[in-house]
Amino acid sequence: MFDSYDSADDPELAQARVFLSELEKHAVTLARRLQTAGTPDIRQSINGDLAVVRRCVDRIQRRFPGIAIPRIAGAPPAGPPP
Fold this sequence. Notes:
Elements: H1 11-35, H2 40-63
Helix pairs in contact: 1-2
């Protein structure tokens, strides 16, 4: 996981990249769970968790504007459609 750490990186930026990677994995897991959710209450709970992940990604993007933002499962694609 830390093999991709670039020693020239600011430690906070490096940590943000690792956190974004973990958020992306968590979002994928939540999206899979959402597909198999049995009740509307469970779907609502999972959607709430996805919203928290999106907010975390947004905060990191504001703090580190140049960082690559992963495509969060369940989020609309960035930019205009092709």
